[in-house]
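Box 3.1 A note on notation
Throughout this textbook, protein chains are presented in two layers. The first layer is the amino acid sequence; the second is a C-alpha cell string describing backbone geometry. Keep the layers aligned when reading.
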Amino acid sequence: MEFRYLGNSGLKISEITYGNWLTHGSQVENEIATQCVHAALDAGITTFDTADVYANTRAESVLGEALRGQRRESLEIFTKVYHPTGPRGHNDSGLSRKHIMESINGSLSRLGTDYVDLYQAHRYDFETPLAETMQAFADIVRQGKALYIGVSEWTADQIRAGHALAKDLGFQLISSQPQYNMLWRVIEAEVVPTCVELGISQIVWSPIAQGVLTGKYAPGGELPPGSRATDERGGAETIKRYLTDEILTGVKSLEPIAADLGLTMAQLAIAWVLSQENVASALVGASRPEQIADNVGAAGVTLDAEVLARIDDALGHLAVTDPSLTKSPATRPS
C-alpha cells in the first residue's frame, strides 16, 4: 500500500480508502461486512470512510464493530454529516449548528471512537449560513472530536468560501470528496484547479463507475445476477445512467489496455483515478472480501502518458465534464 498526504496537512492516508456506502447495514450481512473490513486491513488499507446517513446510521455501527480491537492510532476514520438521519424530523438534516453538534456525538458513539480523523460536510446546505456551519466545525475541532474538516460535492466557489472561513476560524479544510472516474469528470474544469490552489485534496468516490468500468456489463447483454444493476435497494438507480450500449462498448475497448499492463479492468480504473492531479485516495467498497485484493492491486501503479492517451481515445468523448453538475439540493432533504 502507498500513502499520500491529504491536502496541505501532515495527515497521510492510504491510496485506497475503504468505504461502506450501499453495503454495510443494508446490502451485506454484518458478518460479511466485517470480513471485508478485515480483508482491507490485511491488504494494508488504513483509511475507512462512512457517513451517518448510510443505512440510516447502521453503516457506522457496523464499521465501528468491525474495527474494534484495532490500534486506533494506526487508522484514519472518516464520516460525514448533512443528510437525514433518525426519524427525519425538521432538524435531523442539514449543516445547522444543532444538527452538526448532535450528529458528531452520535457518529462517535456508533464508531466506538473518541474522535474522527476527518469530518465532512456531505453536501452544501443552502438553508444555513456558511459562517454558522464553519463555526460549528471549528468548535468540533477544538473539542478534539474531529482532527480535520472536509466537504463532499461542493462547487469550486463553495469550497473557496468555506476555506476562507476555516482559515479565519483557525482550522484546516483539507479535502473534497467528489464522484470521479473515467466517465464522470465534472470536477476537472473548476473544482480541481481551485483545490490545487488552496491545498485541498480529492478523495474520490465511484472510481469504477459503480462497477461499470470492471467490464462485467456487456453491451446488449443480460445484467449479471446479483450485480449492482439488479439491486432494487439503491444500486440499480445509481448505476443506470452508465448502462448504455455506447458506454459499454467504449468500456469494452479498455480491455486490451488493461491486458497490456497486466491489470484487471477494476485496477486500471482505480489506477487512472490515482494518476490524476490532486487525487489523494480512491474510495472502494466491497460486498465480498476477495474484491479487496483486486482493488488494492491498483495501489502504486503508474500510468504513463501513452496509456492515459489511449484511455482518453477510448472513453474521453463519452465522459461527462459539465462542472454545473456538481451541486447540492436547494433545500434540505427530509
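Residues 191 and 231 are 32 Å apart (CA to CA). DSSP finds twelve helices and ten strands in the chain.
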